[in-house]
Fold this sequence. Notes:
13% strand; alpha+beta; elongated
Amino acid sequence: MTQPTDLRRDSRHLGTALHLATEGVPVLPLRRGKLPFGNCPDCTRNACGGRPNMKVAGPCQCGAPCHAWAAATTDPDVIASPGWALAWRHAAAVAYHPGGAGVTVVDLDDPAAVQWARTTLPAARTVSTTRGEHWIYRGTMPSANAVRPGVDIKSLAAYARWLGHGMGATVSLPDSVRALVVKEPTAPRRAPQSLSTPLRSYGGECPHRTPTYLDRGVSMAVQRITEARSAVHATVYRTFLAVLSTHGRCGCLTDTHVARLFTAAQAKGESPRHCTDAWANALTTLGL
């Protein structure tokens, strides 16, 4: 006699969750729509105070998979407990807490976002999704949605759907990904200043095997600014930050490179003062 569909699904998702838990990956069930299950009556509207107050992951004292990402756990007794049984029976997928597993997921939601990542970010472990890809890096950071068109960051205080181990190596989280969620700091107003000597050498090892490597990086940065359709201020700052984090410590950037970036930003409506301030703020953020 065959099992009902919901029981077979229950068994499959539960088995996946228990296996992931043995690998140190905190898991939780997802219902249809890729959403966590709602809180139980005792936890409705966070009446119980959260787990605790949504700052860390772990099972709630109510025994049910409440509080979304914060319910994620590696405890097999909790995962297979009666309090979670109903959720697994109706689960549509297994999710995990990337930050709890020590990783960051760059969620690329469409082909354009995937193409952007391939030309901008270091190669990473890649997992195919329904519409795009998950790029997984080793290390954690704050999560944020819509850091650019079709791109979300899922790490701390977030969940991601488990879609398999993927392909490729898991490399360290690069500064270019961290820069995607950095907000431009407020700088005191000052008169515009020229950048006749934008950078000096800081004794760092030069990663530019050929001049083409640097030129290609600047060209991609110019393209990113040029293609911005919204949040131009933030895009310009994040782009400056990404360029400096990769090329700013060995003294290879010249006036010509900086002028190309400023010209692209001003073509999008940025003032010379904002370009100067954004560049100076990026230098300060990186300690340059």
